[in-house]
Design brief:
The complex is a heterodimer of chains A (306) and B (296).
Chain A: H1 2-7, H2 29-62, H3 66-71, H4 83-89, H5 95-126, H6 130-145, H7 148-161, H8 168-177, H9 179-192, H10 197-205, H11 210-221, H12 223-239, H13 242-248, H14 256-264, H15 271-291, H16 293-304
Helix pairs in contact in A: 2-15, 4-15, 5-8, 5-9, 5-12, 5-14, 6-9, 7-13, 9-12, 10-11, 12-16, 14-15
Chain B: H1 12-39, H2 57-63, H3 66-96, H4 102-111, H5 113-116, H6 119-129, H7 135-142, H8 156-184, H9 188-196, H10 201-230, H11 233-238, H12 250-260, H13 264-295
Helix pairs in contact in B: 1-13, 3-8, 3-10, 8-10, 10-13, 12-13
Classes of the chains: A mainly alpha (306), B mainly alpha (296).
C-alpha cells in the first residue's frame, strides 16, 4: 500500500480532492468511495435476499395458517402459529419422527464406517508406489462421476443376492461401498500428501506397528480432512433420495426425504401442512450447516483448490 | 526398510483394510457396471420366466427410440444451459460478495443454503412458487408484467425451463462459494504490484483475476455438469418427467424402463449409454478447461 501511494498519490487512499474541473468530481474521493461502498452493500444485500427468497418463504409460511399463506404469502407471520408444526408432528403416519430417526441411523452408520475405512485405506495407499496411487485414485475418481441411476438396478440385484434388499443394512452397505467411499479416499489422499513423511518415519523407527501409527499419529493429523468428509457425507446421505426410494422401497420404512415425498405428493394445496412438514424435515441439516459453516466452507475451499 | 518410512511389508492389518476397501468398491461400483454391460445384451424382465441373450438388439432398438433421443436431448440441453447459467451467476454473485466484513460473510453463508437442502424439499418449495396460483404468478400479474398467470410446470417448454431454473438456483449456491474462495485466495500484493506497473482495472482482471480464478472455474464447471447428468430428485418431485415426458432426463428414463416397464435389459443398455455420455463429457471438458489454464 505504501509503495503504491508514494508512486500514485491520487490512486489510493488519498483524501485530497481531485483536481478535476467537473462538479461531481469536486466531491472528495473518500466520500464518493463511501457512497460506492454503501451502494455495493445495498446491491449485494438485495441480490442475496432475492436469491434466498424461497428459503424465506418456507420459514415464514411454516408459521402461518392456510388462509394467510394464500392471501399474503410473503408477509411475516404475525402472530406466529406453531399449529403447522404440531400438526406435522401429530400426523398418524408419524412421518417426521420415523423419517428423522431412519435418516439419522442411516447417516451415522454409513459415516462411522466410511471414515475409518477411507482414512486407513488412504494411509495404506500413501505408502505405495506413485504409479499405483495414480491408478487407484483414477479408478476412484471415475466412480465419483457415474450417475447413480446407472448403478441402481445392479446394486439392488447384488443386495438381493446378499439377502439385504429392502433393509437398512443393505442401504448402509451400498453407501459405504459406493461413490461416498471414493469421495472420502479422495479427500484423505489429498490431505495426506501434505503430511510430512518424517513424522511417520520417526514413529516407525520407534517400532510402533502400522495400525498403531495410523490410529495414534495419522488420524489426529487428518482431523481437518475428517471434518470435511463427515460433514459432506452426512449431508449427502441425509439428502439422498433415489437410493432409499428404490433400495428400501415404500413398504420398508422411510427416510426423511422419501417420507416427505410420499406424504406431500398427495396434498398439493394444503400449504400449511406442506410448509410445516418441510421446515421440520430441513431444520437438522440447516442447523448443522449454520453451526459448522466455517468447516463447511473450509472443506469446500480446500477441495476446490486441488 | 524402516528408514524409508515404509511399514514392515508383512503388517497384515492395513493390508486387510486395503483389501476390504477395494473389495467394497469393486462390489458396488465395478461389478454393477460390468453387470449392466452384460445385462444390456439380454432381454431380462422380472415378469418373464426366462432371460435370453439378444446380442445388440437393445442397442439397435435405442437408435430408433424417440423417447430416448428426446430424453438425451433434454439432458444434454439442461446440463449445458444450467452449467453455463449457474457458473455465470456464481461468478457474478461471487464478485458482488467479494468482501470480508461481517455482513458480506453473512451473505456468503446464506448464498450456500440451497446446497444444504435436499432436492426433494427444494422441489416442493419451487412447486409452490411456480404453481398456477403461486407467488411468482401473483407477483407477475399484480405488477402487470403479464395479464394471465403462466403455467410454469404445465407446458413442455416452460416445464423444461422451470426445471433448469430450479437446478440453476441450487447449483449457484455451490458455484458462488467456489468462485468466492478462488477470488479471496488471490494475494492482494499481485494487484498492488500491477497498479505500480500502471495496469488499469481491465488489465488487472485480464491478467490477474481471470487466470487466478480459472482453476476454481474448472472445478465448478466439472462438478456442475456431473451433478446435472446425475440429477434425479428435483425432476422427480417438480414434474415427474412431464408434461408429455418433456422433462424426462435420461436418469429418469432409466428408472422408468427398469421399474415401470420392468425392462431390465433395455434399462441396462440405456444406463450404459448414459455412462458413456457422462464419461466423454467429463473427460473432454476437464481436459479443455485444464488446457485453458495453462495457456494463460
Amino acid at each position: 500500500m505504501t509503495v503504491s501511494t508514494s508512486h500514485r498519490p491520487a490512486a489510493s487512499r488519498s483524501t485530497a480532492p481531485s483536481p478535476s474541473t467537473g462538479r461531481a468530481a469536486s466531491i472528495p474521493r473518500a466520500k464518493r468511495r463511501k457512497w460506492a461502498t454503501k451502494g455495493h452493500l445495498i446491491a449485494a444485500t438485495l441480490v442475496t435476499l432475492a436469491f434466498v427468497s424461497p428459503v424465506y418463504l418456507t420459514v415464514v409460511n411454516a408459521f402461518k395458517p392456510q388462509d394467510q399463506i394464500v392471501s399474503d404469502p410473503a408477509a411475516l407471520p404475525v402472530p406466529p402459529t406453531t399449529r403447522n408444526l404440531t400438526d406435522a408432528l401429530s400426523r398418524p403416519d408419524r412421518i417426521i419422527q420415523i423419517g428423522l430417526t431412519n435418516s439419522l441411523v442411516t447417516v451415522v452408520a454409513s459415516v462411522i464406517l466410511i471414515i475409518p475405512i477411507g482414512a486407513a485405506f488412504s494411509f495404506w495407499l500413501s505408502r505405495r508406489s506413485a504409479p499405483l496411487q495414480r491408478i487407484v485414485l483414477a479408478v476412484f475418481g471415475a466412480g465419483l462421476m457415474i450417475p447413480p441411476a446407472v448403478l441402481l438396478l445392479p446394486t439392488i440385484r447384488i443386495l438381493t443376492f446378499l439377502h439385504l434388499d429392502h433393509t437398512y443394512t443393505g442401504l448402509v452397505l451400498s453407501n459405504v461401498g459406493g461413490g461416498y467411499l471414493a469421495f472420502a479416499v479422495f479427500v484423505y489422499s489429498g490431505f495426506l500428501r501434505s503430511v510430512p513423511g518424517e513424522i511417520i518415519e520417526a514413529a516407525t523407527v520407534d517400532g510402533a506397528g502400522t495400525l498403531r501409527i495410523w490410529w495414534t499419529i495419522v488420524m489426529p493429523l487428518l482431523r481437518p480432512a475428517t471434518a470435511t468428509v463427515a460433514i459432506f457425507l452426512s449431508l449427502w446421505i441425509w439428502n439422498d433420495f433415489m437410493n432409499p426410494q428404490f433400495i428400501l422401497g415404500p413398504l420398508h420404512g422411510q427416510t426423511i426425504t422419501t417420507g416427505v415425498y410420499q406424504s406431500l405428493g398427495q396434498f398439493s394445496t394444503n400449504y400449511a401442512q406442506l410448509f410445516g412438514v418441510m421446515l421440520l424435515a430441513a431444520v437438522i441439516p440447516v442447523a448443522g450447516y449454520l453451526f459448522l459453516q466455517k468447516q463447511f466452507i473450509a472443506g469446500l475451499t480446500s477441495g476446490a483448490s486441488k | 526398510m524402516t528408514t524409508r518410512a515404509h511399514p514392515r511389508r508383512g503388517d497384515p492389518a492395513l493390508g486387510a483394510i486395503a483389501v476390504l476397501t477395494l473389495g467394497l468398491y469393486a462390489l458396488f461400483i465395478v461389478v454393477p457396471v460390468i453387470m449392466s454391460a452384460w445385462k444390456s445384451l439380454t432381454d431380462e424382465n422380472p415378469l418373464k420366466p426366462q432371460t435370453h441373450f439378444v446380442g445388440f438388439d437393445n442397442y439397435t432398438e435405442m437408435t430408433h427410440d424417440s423417447a430416448l433421443s428426446d430424453s438425451l436431448t433434454f439432458t444434454l440441453l439442461l446440463t449445458a444451459a444450467v452449467t453455463i447459467a449457474a457458473n455465470a451467476a456464481g461468478i457474478g454473485f461471487a464478485i458482488l460478495l467479494n468482501k470480508t466484513s461481517l455482513s458480506y460473510r453473512m451473505m456468503r453463508t446464506v448464498a450456500f443454503l440451497p446446497q444444504v437442502l435436499s432436492g426433494v424439499i427444494v422441489a416442493f418449495v419451487w412447486r409452490y412458487i411456480l404453481a398456477q396460483d403461486g407467488i411468482l404468478n401473483d407477483i407477475l400479474t399484480t405488477t402487470g408484467i403479464t395479464d394471465k398467470p403462466i403455467t410454469w410446470l404445465g407446458t413442455p417448454h416452460l416445464a423444461m425451463f422451470s426445471v433448469g431454473l430450479v437446478a440453476a438456483w441450487v447449483l449457484t449456491g455451490f458455484t458462488t462459494v467456489v468462485h468466492l474462495a478462488a477470488l479471496q485466495s488471490i494475494p492482494v500484493e499481485l494487484y498492488q504490484a500491477a497498479k505500480v506497473d500502471g495496469a488499469g482495472r481491465r488489465q488487472q482482471f485480464r491478467h490477474i483475476t481471470f487466470p487466478m480464478v480459472a482453476p476454481g472455474t474448472t472445478i465448478s464447471v466439472t462438478i456442475s455438469m456431473i451433478t446435472m447428468l446425475k440429477l434425479y430428485d428435483i425432476i422427480a418431485v417438480l414434474t415427474s418427467g412431464g408434461p408429455a415426458d418433456s422433462t424426462q432426463s435420461t436418469a429418469l428414463y432409466i428408472i422408468k424402463c427398469a421399474f415401470t416397464d420392468n425392462r431390465f435389459g433395455y434399462a441396462s443398455a440405456v444406463a450404459m449409454l448414459l455412462l458413456a455420455v457422462s464419461a466423454v463429457i467429463a473427460l473432454s471438458v476437464t481436459g479443455l478447461l485444464r488446457r485453458r489454464e495453462v495457456d494463460l
